[in-house]
Amino acid sequence: MDDAPEFDRLLAEGGAAPVDGWDFSWFAGRATEQRPSWGYARTVLPPRVAAAGRLLDMQTGGGEVLAEVLTRAGQRPALVAATEGWPPNVAVAGRHLRPLAASLVEVADDACLPFASGSFDLVTGRHPTRIRWPEIARVLRRGGTYLAQHVAAGSVQELTNFLMGPQPVGRSRDPEHVAAQAEAAGLHVVDLRSEALRTEFYDIAAVVAFLRKVVWIVPGFTVADYRDRLAALHEHIRTEGAFVAFARRFLIEAYRPE
After folding, report:
1. CA Rg value for the chain
2. Which secondary-structure segment (H or E) carries 145?
3. Helix or strand run (H / E) with residue 7
4. Ramachandran bin of 223, using left for φ above 0, alpha for ψ from -120 to 50, beta for the remaining angles
5. Helix crossing, 227-240 with 4-16: angle to 10°?
6. Helix and strand tally (H, E) in the chain?
7. Angle at 251 between CA 245 and CA 254, to 5 degrees
8. Distance separating alpha carbons of residues 71 and 65, to the nearest angstrom
9. What is the pLDDT along the chain (258 residues), one digit of tens a residue?
10. Left (φ > 0), alpha (ψ -120 to 50) or beta: where does 204 sit?
11. Could you tell me the residue range of the domain that residue 199 belongs to?
């Protein structure tokens, strides 16, 4: 490689980038991702939150999205609770949510929810990793709503395949499969929308930081283990100007029947 010092510098930059929470401002100028047309945090959610009495935001990450939605909603629910399972994110979420009087509970993503049955009339989530639908149905009051944006199957699969070789796409995140699970738990799905969103990486530092932050794209990723493939990807970006992949998202709304 004729620019080995530059390659190593970019690897180091990506390896030192902050990965706590869901703030992606570090990627400005290094990567872009098209946003879903429905505008989850800006358009869909604020009026629902303003009308809710008791809100639970599941797997809140660093609390950035919930804090934004509460600010946009204007009128606050009487009770706002959030869960998060990754310890580094818990600390970040606490800083964002304490000033908004939101209660934060540390609980593993696949654990039972530590709330009484029928506690909430709105349960939300942006990119939850694991969903126990019977638990969602349990903590929702009758007539209550689950409204969330999920990561769909095959998201950024182009990057996974470049680094790991062709990988199968499982069904666990397929929108129709997820909707069927919600229905099986006793919820009624009333809205299901999905989109493929163009994503571009403009340098290898952005790729490294992204893989450290979004750990399920290449499970067990380390720079040392993938150095050769990262070098090939670096050359691709230098030649083509960017590496293009597609993030896949879906919006799901379901309610617990009266």
Report:
1. 19
2. strand 140-151
3. helix 4-16
4. alpha
5. 110
6. 9, 8
7. 155
8. 10
9. 567 899 999 999 999 999 987 789 999 999 999 999 999 999 999 999 999 999 999 999 999 999 999 999 989 999 999 999 989 899 999 999 999 999 999 999 999 999 999 999 999 999 999 999 999 999 999 999 999 999 999 999 999 999 999 999 988 999 999 999 999 999 999 999 999 999 999 999 999 999 999 999 999 999 999 999 999 999 999 999 999 999 999 999 999 999
10. alpha
11. 4-255
Domains contained in the chain, number: 1
- Using alpha carbons, list the distances in angstroms from residue 8 to 130, 186, 240: 35, 53, 20
Q: Give the CA-trace dihedral at 47, 86, 233, 149, to 10 degrees.
A: -20
Tokens representing 93 are 């979420």
| 52, 102 Cβ separation under 8 angstroms | no
Beta carbons within 8 Å of 11's beta carbon, 6+ residues apart: 204, 205, 208, 223, 227, 230
The partner residues of 83 in beta bridges, in order of sequence, read 105
- Domain containing residue 87: CATH number: 3.40.50.150
